[in-house]
Amino acid sequence: MLVPLALPAADHAQQWVEDRTRTGLGAVRVLVEELRSGPAGDALAGLRQWDEITLQLSNVAAVGSLLSNVHPDENVRTACEQAEIEADQVATELRQDRSLYDVLAALDPTGLDAQATRLLTKTLEDFRRAGVDRDDAARARLAEINRRLTELGLAFSRSTRDDVRTVRVTPDRLAGMPADWLAAHPADEDGLVTITTDYPDAVPARMFVHDRDVRRQVTVASLQRGWPQAEPLLQEMFALRHELAGLVGHPDWAAYDAAVKMIQEGPAIPAFIDRIAEAAHEPMQRDLAVLLARFRCDVPDATEIDTADANYYEELVRKEQHDVDAQVVRTYFDFATVRQGLLDVTGRLFGLRYERVEDAVVWHPDVAAYDVLAADGRDDVGVGSVLGRIYLDLHPREGKYKHAAQFTLADGVAGRQLCEGVLVCNFSRGLMEHDHVVTLFHEFGHLVHHVLAGQAQWTRFSGVATEWDFVEAPSQMLEEWAWSPDVLQSFATNADGEPIPTDLVARMRGADDFGKGYHARTQMFYAAMSYWFHVERPTDLTAATRELQARYSPFAWIEDTHMFASFGHLGGYSSAYYTYAWSQVIAKDLFSVFDTADMFDPELAGRYRKKILAPGGSKDAADLVEDFLGRPCTFDAYSAWLAE
Ligand SMILES: [Zn+2]
Question: Which of 127, 222, 473, 613 is deepest in the core (most CB within 10 A)?
Fold first, then answer.
């Protein structure tokens, strides 16, 4: 039986990480040398050796990435960052190692089964995407470009992160701001209150401040962050990505990036963007009309609205027309019952049982460990067999990761290593916002995907190893269970034990849905920037932004703003910001076959688990979707949702 990794107690965690990194990377070097210089064995033996290298590297990187983000001891976090960097360096070196590539490329695929053949194909593709088969000059240039791109990526995120702007106003102009914010921001000796462009200030200021001019000042300051210093960094980044793509045989960066995604082709990206924009056109007009009508109650001659007013009026419409009091909603979502509800709901849906492991060594007392067991015989997994271990680390603390994400602790490989995953979030310990409940379900969707795909034959296909424009779909779909009145009523009860009323959930949904058409258009405006900036590499990014905003966004341009300069996703997502919407189209289609009156249909849920989640990366995502739906994915469910 496979056993979980024994994590170290806090007092020797640093030594443990350093030893484990040294041992793991040492093993990688020995395995690589054997593969490179050993006798040419059969293809299966070669692939097994390569998979063991992948597993060892992934183990070092996973612990590094997890504990550098969650461990309470700064020294441990630093040691883990170092482990992650070293594992990444080794992985990069291997992909550029010509002699290793030659060994793998010489393996004879005859007689390999479909999975092994897929592994060999994907592995050789990884090497070629790194340029291993190019001449020496090209390989040297690629290494130089990659180094510079890493520097530029860091410089770009710094250029926004460090550029915090401020707006200072007298306290009387802040009517509308939440009382706790006002209490925490008293006037200074000049009698002024400072609002920074950081989210905890700028978001409520733009949503709630009644004074129109204050909202405008905060909006403009926010949209000026990072400019002008980010523009030359971005220009150089786009140029180098373009050059890199050309060196490995692609017409542009977007084509290079799309080749390993569901979308496959660069030009399919603007086609997708325009298709979503078209589907969202009428819903956008409908909600914009409501927004403008409300705006005109205060500004009678307005014919258009920009984002300095849109955030505020959107919030107002939600409050006035959908009658949702967030303070009342929270009373139904006590953290402890939500956590248990999440486990009950997902356990029932996916045929799982979670057993708390009280004596597991964890990195902080807040963390809860559970073994995940098969509760029924789905997928031919024996009832009661352990599928993996999960850790829930759900509350904020100093030095911890600030967002919500699933981290891998161990990739599950059948007969070789038990699957382990971790949910890292920052929820309050008492009452939760419903938004946060939805986030919890979403992130748990990634965790359950990791675990259910954790009986893989090969490391490369284990867990959430699918195309990057598909990974959000299962999580986006699981969000629906956090919106169903029936499902919510199974755990969301207030202090008197009363379940959340059905009509309140309906009003919450209505409020959440308001603006979905123009939100989709705004997302397509961002996706168009991400694509066209990489393909056309315009010389004036402000002018190009203005043009794309006019084409896709419903909101009027604000003079002297440079939104792209703080659009951080140009770094990580590069030309592929379309992916979130792409996954959403699939999520709506997958959900369309579920009956909202019977969200736990075991036959359907079992098929979903088996066809979509369990295969991990062992099949192309388009095939997974088609296997489950019995047809290719369509836009219909997404369009219907936008229109309703
Ligand atoms: Zn996600």
Answer: 473
